[in-house]
Amino acid sequence: MTLSGAASGSQTADGSGAYTFSNLLSGSYTLTPSGTGLAFTPANRSVTVTNANMAGVNFVANTVVTYSISGTITGGAGATVTLSGAASASTTANASGGYSFSGLLSGSYTVTPNLAGSTFSPVSTPVTISTANISGINFAANAPLVLDVQTSKDQTPASTTIASPAFSTATTNELLLAFVSTDQISPTAVKVNSISGGGLTWTLVQRTNSQGGTAEIWRAFAAAKQTNITVTATISQKVASSMTIVGFENVDATGANGVAAIGATASASAGSGAPTASLVTTRNGSWVFGVGNDFDRATLRTVGAAQTMVHQATSPTGDTYWVQMQTSQTPSSVTTVTINDTAPTQDSWNLTICEILPQP
Q1: Which residues pair with 229 in a beta bridge?
Q2: Cα 107 from chain centre
Q3: Residue 38 pLDDT more than 80?
Q4: Coil, strand, or helix at residue 260?
Q5: Would you state the pLDDT for residue 267?
Q6: Are residues 136 and 211 in the same domain?
Q7: Which domain holds residue 72?
Q8: How much is the pLDDT for 184?
Q9: Phi and psi angles of residue 101, each rounded to the nearest 5 degrees, phi first
Q10: Which entry of 113, 200, 334, 347 is 20 to 30 Å from 87 by CA?
Q11: Counting runs of H as helices and runs of E as strands, what totals does the chain give?
């Protein structure tokens, strides 16, 4: 029991529920009872002491009925599970992925799991407690993206084709991306006409060729494991070029030919300045890569913060070709991700970036 007002103090009711505050001066007071698992009628009482003791300031304690929310996260051992809404709490899923929240009143809640590097189906679940425990609020943790294949080829002397080194994939259902950047010898904009290899269907994701040369991303989906295959790009002009092939495990395989594994894309170019392009991610745990070309000089890049150079090459024709990526995947969707270089800043450039999506 808590006393406030003209004086303050607290007492614990005895075994019969009785309490006493003594030695009080005349004045106005408020008495407020509290107890774990109890609700009180009334919630508090105001008392005015005037030259006399006050008795019979009574309350009725009622047991509060509480409930629980529980479930299992498949593949989610160690995941943090957050409860929001009528109450807030967090817990950690056990070795089997199980979790539980107890002591909850009736009301509306939302349960959200989180585990670094993983995405969840569903992302979160609304739960309404009426007069019973709620179980079976289950989730599935999807494996994070894994970089499998990474191989590059720099083509000089100039040619209308460029072929990758032979490579193999480690698993089924891999997304393959071809990052191609080139020189330009004609006033007409250069482009990659087609890509072939592995008996796969290769499709253009994004092209940037507003400045000299081109920077392009092409995709293919390898449903079966690939063994010792090569990939060849056919270019519209006889030029120096560079191609990097990257393969990803645990991508979204729901769309035809890997289309669902590509999220946001962006294209940028300028006659001078530091290369930079940005996009807003569309799924938790996605990964952003980019490819660029510098038509003016053969000079190495200085990558921006939280990024890693995958491959870069300087050509005898005075160009630079490169592929760079986020050093790690982006935990949350609707995040602005920038692929950029801080140097050089005086050359013309093309830059193309895209988001790779994990399993939904």
Answers
A1: 167
A2: 29
A3: yes
A4: helix
A5: 98
A6: no
A7: 67-142
A8: 98
A9: -120, 130
A10: 334
A11: 0, 28
